[in-house]
Amino acid sequence: MTEENEKKRPFPGRLTSLPPPPEVEDGSGNESDNEMSAWQKLQSGASTPNLSETMENLKRSLSISALHEMSTKPSAEMRRNIQNKLWRPKDEEMRIPTDWERLMVYVLRVGARTFVLSYGLRGSMSMLFALIKMLRSRRKSRTSLLQQSFLAEDTIRFALMFGLWSSLFKFVNNALRLLTPLPRYMITPVPPSRSRTESDPTPQEGAGEEDDGLVMASKPRKLGKPPKHHKQHKASAKERFRNISASDPRVRWWHAYVSGAISSVAILVERKSLIQSFGPQLFVRGLEGSYRFARSRGFIDIPYGSILVFGIANTQIIWAWFARKDLLPKSYSRWITKASNLPANLLDMNEGCLQADSRGVDPWTMVDLVGGQLPEPISTNPLRYPSLPPTKAFPSGISGKTVAKLYQSFEKNDQRHFPTCALSHPHTNNHLRYLFSDFANRWRWIMPVYLTLYIVPAVFLRPKSFFKDPKHKSLHLVGNAARSSAFLATYIEIIKSFFCLFHSTSNWIRYSPTLSKSKSAMWISDMLQDGRINMLPGFLSCLSLFVEQPHRRSELSAYVLPKALESYWKFGRQKGFLPHIPYGDFWLASVSISLIMGTYTNHPESLSRLVSLVIYQFMGRN
């Protein structure tokens, strides 16, 4: 073969009897190669429409031919299409704006969608609660309550807040991404054939020894390493493409934290009183996500952590409810009083006796509480009193034994101690029977509320799962609501059982002929009626969580902890050991939203299922 023909001879490529090296899959091997693959998928994927494309889509969607085509489709397909428009499917394709015009259109569309979704959810919940109130009320039903569910100022403020929040977060998060330059190794990438392995021979670079025109492959070299500044993702290939941070190399971990903090400006749309309650709730959600992430990495693990948090939070809540109601939000304090089924006047008298400068309860106040007049005894040997008919404060009536304890309290003339236990259930003195009957009454009272809380999210948040098998799903929801109602009833009975135990034991010591003369016994009696002793049943109320479903325990803990933090903050400000921070409610909400959105973007599995589902419906994967 001549030298000229030798030069024209084509390069044979790899001719070897050895098996080729294995292909590198996503999530393993060269990390920079994976980033290039993700970037190529991102660039070739569906982008958000610009202004002209949006107008064309609107014209096409609102055209007569499109409406006629929609009317010819089956009802199931039409319903599925409408649901996908209103509710994001789990496998929704990620869309990312690639320029500033597309970003502005994208932000407006997201804000409008979030406003409509949050407006519908808040209005539907308000309407259902209004229906329950109308059914329970004995007064004439008013249809204006239903109209106010959707037209009330609180509903509009709520929807505006979420719409503005999603728009701000989307704009800032994507703007930071667009302003961040690409890494240098992404601007001038290595060809795919050479980024996977450097063992391929080239005409310029020898590929090994030649023998009769066959090229023997040389030993493959090790795969190259990504730049040091680039952090490796340890998630699986499926998880790598579920959000923008796994696809676009311009995304930094701190983008979501900064965007979340800036988007918290939207919370100023709400009332100041609601901002004060939002701050602790959002802060607890942010801490919950950070704790779950730390636990998944093995940094910390507290056994029964949610149950312990529930008990610690209720030590502050129950103490404040008995001794300092001003430390709790008025609506929350009224709700606890209504759930306890105890007369508000009785609780006010008990709270007054717990104050250090209090002189006790006026005896005539107790007489007015039982109807304004005490009856004469029907028998002096033994001493017995007749039962009293039902009153507004005590609809079940008042037994003769309770009347006898009132007379005994008046003879003792100790206005700081009165038969609190007897007046908490004056129709019977059998504590065990009262606890069982009250458990059934509390379960029946709260059951409609929990049915609403279970059915509304199932219909609006998970419509496909609900309508796929509505009969089985409805029975499942009713069972869950019954179990949650049993949890709340157990929680109430734990508090009330210790309340009766402390006060009945204290009164027994105080009216005992022998124990009343002992100073140590009287000290125990005073301690059992001290307000701080109620911290014990507050903590032991965490045992009621074992009745609830395991996956709901952390949600309940996250619900009561903000109330406890708010109460503790007020107490600390009054005592002077906590400083005053200007606009502290807003700064707390800002830090909390930053933690939540940073965790959702970087480690979404660390957030609770409910929080992740809500944010996904508002934000999607971007």
Automatic annotation (TrEMBL):
It comes from the Eukaryota. Residues 219-235 have a biased composition (Basic residues). Residues 1-51, 190-238 are annotated as: Disordered. InterPro entries: Tmem135. Signal peptide: none annotated. Keywords: Membrane, Transmembrane, Transmembrane helix. Residues 35-51 have a biased composition (Polar residues). The keyword Signal does not apply. Residues 23-34 have a biased composition (Acidic residues). The chain crosses the membrane at residues 116-135, 302-322. This is Transmembrane protein 135 N-terminal domain-containing protein. It comes from Malassezia psittaci.
